[in-house]
UniProtKB/TrEMBL annotation:
Keywords: Cell membrane, Membrane, Transmembrane, Transmembrane helix. Its main location: membrane. It is found in: Cell membrane. It is a multi-pass membrane protein. Pfam families: LysE. This is LysE family transporter. The chain crosses the membrane at residues 41-64, 71-88, 145-167, 179-202.
Amino acid sequence: MTSNTLLLILGIHALALISPGPDFAVVTRTAIVSGRRAGLWAAAGVATAIGVYVLVSVLGMSLVLAALPGLSRILAIVGALYLAWLGIQCLRSKGQLPDAQPAGANGRTFVSGFLTNLLNPKAMLYFGSVLSQALKPGLAATDVALLWTLLVAESLLWFALVALLFSSRPVLAWLRARLVWLDRTVGAVLLVLAAKVSVLAVR
């Protein structure tokens, strides 16, 4: 793999990360509601799921989806249902910040971030089309390891920055009185995304 190819892939991935989506919404809300540590765990979950997708792409996810077109629809429907569930949870929120973090919250926020990305059809289509074309069968193992490390690190860095920003005291103080509306906005966005995904899945 040439350096130009590597930089191109990292650049495309950076643009995909910056684009607002379910991952951003979940990490942001988690950092605000449950604190910085929980937000970082959610960010780690998202980055871990991205690492899984990179590995699956190496194994030929695009070939599998081409051979089993029904699998893509099933994953899209499951992803839409999960996004809808997250959206409903946000809409039902009363906008209250917990005084203490319940036991095991870090593990749950990690799983939440992990599943949000893993069941996101946008991520599936992204890695199945763009990245799988760059990961040729003859690619050296060292190149695969380097690319996987850089993509996961880039993802973790971005979402960790998001978690740190939205868990900072100045930002948190400004949002404390607006948390109900933030939850409702995030919930509405997630429901819209779920609706779009479901429409595409049944076509």
